[in-house]
Structure formats: C-alpha cells, structure tokens
Design goal:
five-stranded antiparallel beta sheet, alpha+beta, 17% helix, 262 residues, elongated, 2 domains, five-stranded mixed beta sheet, single chain
Amino acid sequence: MGLARGIRVPLQARPRMMVTVVDVGGGSALQRPATDTLALAVAPALAEAGGGFQVQVYVNGTEMTSRGAGLGMDPYDLLVPTNRLVATTEPHTVGIARCVCGVYGCASTDITIVRDGDLVHWEWLYDKPMERGVTFPADAYDAEVTRVAEDHSWETPDRTAGRLVLLNVDRERLRPYGLHVSWVANDYVDPETFVVCLRLDNDYQIFVGTPWRGRSPEQLADDICQTLAQPPHQWPASWHAIKPRLTDPPPIAGSSWRRRHL
C-alpha cells in the first residue's frame, strides 16, 4: 500500500484529537482519528526460531507481531546500529515481523512510517495484523521509540558486546575492501569465542573470531573494533565461499586465513 504525506483536519474544540486523511494511492483516501498508542518490548524469541530475542510491538495494548507474520524482529535488525523506527517526513518501510521459523521473508510484516507534523502514521504491508493503518501522537511515539532503543536491561553479555561492535566498528575502513558486517554473535560451536561475520561483496563470508578470556563485553568489543580497524590480511580470520565455483581464498586474505566448512 503506497503512502503519501497525510493532511491533518482538526476536530472542533479538540486540538489533540485529529482526523488524519492519508492518501493510499489510486486517488482514494482514508480518514482515522489519531488516538492509537504504541508500546515496544524486547522479549526472548521462540526456541523453534533458534532462540535469541525479538522486538514485540503493541498497538492499543494488542501485540501485533504474533498476529502478523508471527515473530518480532531481532533487535539488531530494528534498533542497532540505527533505530529504524524513527519517524521522518520521508516515508520509509521497515520489517517488524518475521516467520516463526526465524526467517524474514518466509513470512513478513512490514510498516511504512511517515511523520506529518505532530502525527506519525503507520501503514501495514504483507502479513497484516489488522486491516487499518494506525496513527500516533508524535511526541508519545518519539518517546517510546527512543526509550526502547536506550533500554539495554534485557541484554546478555554477548548481546552487549554485539551492540557495541555494531555501533563502533569503523565501516569507512571496511568499505574500500568491499566488506560489510553481516552478523555478530557467540560461536555456536565454541561460545567462549565471539564471531563477527563479514561479507565480501556477494562472494565470500569472512569470520573473525575473538576469545572472551574473561573480559567484559566492553573490553571485548573494543578489542574487536581495534582488530577490524587493521588491514584484513592481519586479521585472525577464516573464510567461506558463497558461490561454489570459488575455491580460492578471497583476494584480501592473509597467510593465516583458513577455509571454514559450514
């Protein structure tokens, strides 16, 4: 559903109660009062989705991700390193729910977000949890979106380390090599090692592992960011070819790099 900027039409003698006229394309429009409420929470994800965490979305007290595609998005996909729920005057579309298997795209619920003065509009896309779009008072919306992004009380040590790496890694140093960070987590085989996975274009995955060795998340993240600020051939890394025809190490590989069989 396309979304253009809304037009606010005030009701008589009730300036906080607005009727929002939202262009939904094809020359049609809809009206709704701006009385919706938003609450966000980070909760454990389902075991069948591989565990981890999800961002749950409550509109007017009803949880929407379970009613939509089934499972909220991982906080790293929604809040870190950029809070994608921030509303701007330029509409943008964000995935807020994925399939209960944990894969976004197997099933998905998206929202298109746009700020219109003192209002914020959402329009649902794909697996919709409700048939109408919703509109929030912008001040309350901004406060809730900021609050959930700044609340780290749910984090485990590996999630704290991951957040700090995603926030502080020097992406400008990685870009000339064609590298970008794909994911960060404890190694599923050796949880005493924290892994940063990077993609080299669409050809290779590169894994940089760093042992915890009793360090705090802050110390570990700082060490990882310092490592990734060095030229790639100096990293303690392994590699996996995304394309089967690629059998040689990536051109940026150092002599200590080893092939990783997934």
